Amino acid sequence: MRTSGAVVATLAVACATGSLAFAPAGPRTATPTVRSSKLILQQSTGTGKSLEYDPDKYKDPNAGNYRRLSDSLANADVEAKKAAEEMDKRERAAEIRRDERLAKINFMKEMDDELEVGTVEDFMFKEGVRDILDRLDSDLVGLIPVKKRVREIAALLVLDKMRGKLGFDTAVPSLHMCFTGAPGTGKTTVALRMGQILARMGYCRLGHVVVATRDDLVGQYVGHTAPKTKDMIKKAFGGILLVDEAYYLYNASNDKDYGQESIEILLNVMENQKEDLIVTLAGYKDRMDRFFSFIPGMSSRIGNHIDFPNYEKDELVEIAQVMARDLQYAMDDSAAAKFQEYIDLRMQFPFFSNARTVRNAMDRARMNSAIRVFNEAVVASSGDGMVSAMDLATITESDFQILLDELVHYQSIGKMDAIVA
Hints:
This is Cbbx protein. InterPro entries: AAA+_ATPase, AAA_lid_6, ATPase_AAA_core, CbxX/CfqX_mono, CbxX/CfxQ, CbxX/CfxQ_RuBisCO_ESX, P-loop_NTPase. It comes from Tribonema minus. By secondary structure, this protein is of the alpha/beta class. 56% of the residues lie in helices and 9% in strands. Residues 1-25 and 29-39 have low confidence and may be disordered.
């Protein structure tokens, strides 16, 4: 008897689903056999053919889609859970902020308007700020805009501390600074005084100043820059890191320059460790402005920009007199007038550096004074060789005349760049 196609199909489906055990009636001429997930239905037929069911031929073509859909739904559940948790965090944070605002409002309502914390002058004296500002006035001749800006910063810090005494919220302002100006205009001196003020006010632990240049921060080969920069930062922790001529850290013509790594480290420290390190950048104003245009993240981290103007001629003469006084030397009117002549001409030469040039001139004038006194007392045949206190403490017109004659000589031979001091 031939098995019909419908019966075979029915048996195939039933076997595939495992819902039917094949047990034909009549003589048992064939039994189901399972081999490698294949069910062989073998029965005597007129043609002697076998019927074979291969489950691989009947796979659901959407099975992969079902798995992907299941995975997508699981991922969606995870993301939804994360979003809900994030929403809860934001709501809790908003509630905390609301409570804080209400507390501040109640604090202000309940505060006695007549409550006093003391006078600003007393507070400045107690904290030692007044003494430091007075020393800044004596250290620096002129620079009125600079001193004014330093006093403004000091005022903010003092009033912030006074607010804290009464229980007001206080926030540490951005203390990173940028000093722009020519060499010798007092940038390092102001940094030293600012460090002392910040230390007295509790805004930094030590208040010392570490001066660094590109050579101190940038290495010569791969892997050398980071240790050098971090070492200088470590030395400056608790105080001020003064990066002189900071624009040399960036080389616009070479994007692989090692200075970029140093800049990135400084940016990270300025943002994340500003409570323990104050970074101050210094250099010429036009070059610093260009540097900030290349590194905008640096400019945004600096809260105080102070411009140091060049000294006037009369201020340079006064600086020379202050230096002489600090070294316990005397300069009479004729010596001061001769120094004025020297400065007038020296400012026409290259490499003029304001107070730094004055200091170099004073050092050379002291040398000339020593040679003059020595020659008069020992080398000259006349006289008894006695040296008075006045001789040892006086810088004369002739001591500056030597410097002036040197300038005139180099100017006459066209070698004005020979003077570098």
